[in-house]
Amino acid sequence: MAPRESSRVPLEGQTPSVGDDPRAAAGFFLCSPPEHGRSFEQLAMIDSAALYVSIGSLLVAIGSLVVSIAARREARHHTVFTSRTQALDHFRIAVNDIKRVRRVTPAAVLIMRDAKSRADLAFDEKLRSDLDRVIQIADRLQFQLLSQKESDVDALLRDLDQITLRMSQTAAFR
């Protein structure tokens, strides 16, 4: 009976074969065996380089994730900030229109409704409900265009000024 190949001891100057190394026979090395012309040191360097490339790729992916999350937050902040400033600007235009003519005109009510639609995206429920209430009052007053009482218009302007102030404060804090 012939001796098993793994029990063979290499002679001096010979490179060991896969069968001579029990670690290689057990599948310990993940790279090609040294009999293909490369030493274990060269293969270890190749494995190390592959590991470094993999770690570098992982770091780049994590960095990309962090950048995308930051960009998403910035975009969301910009969207809300733009809606707030647009709502506030439209609302101020409507208030200035009412102050200028001392009457609630249909144009002013339309501008307030436009401001309300923009405010729905950017302001809290309390402010939106106050805007609804003021728009209902202004809507009622616009139909009494010729018979609007100065006291009703002044009360509406006080409410509008308070809401404008609260909108300005909310837009400045966030």
Commentary on this structure:
- It is a single chain.
- The model has no long low-confidence stretch (mean pLDDT 79).
- This protein is mainly α and 174 residues long.
- It contains 5 helices and no strands.
- The radius of gyration is 39 Å and the shape is rod-shaped.
- The termini are far apart.
Describe the structure in brief.
By secondary structure, the protein is an all-alpha fold. It has five helices and no strands.
What are its keywords?
mainly alpha; single chain
Largest sheet: none
Q: From the helix content, strand content and strand pairing, which structural class follows? A: mainly alpha
Q: Evaluate the radius of gyration.
A: 39 Å
The pLDDT mean sits at: 79
Number of DSSP E strands: 0
The string of secondary-structure elements, in order, is HHHHH
Identify low-pLDDT runs. none
Helical percent range? over 70%
Categorize the overall geometry: rod-shaped
Number of helices: 5
* Strand coverage percent: under 5%
Intertermini distance = 87 Å
Topology of this protein?
Blueprint (H helix, E strand, L loop, with lengths): L21 H4 L14 H62 L4 H17 L2 H18 L7 H24 L1
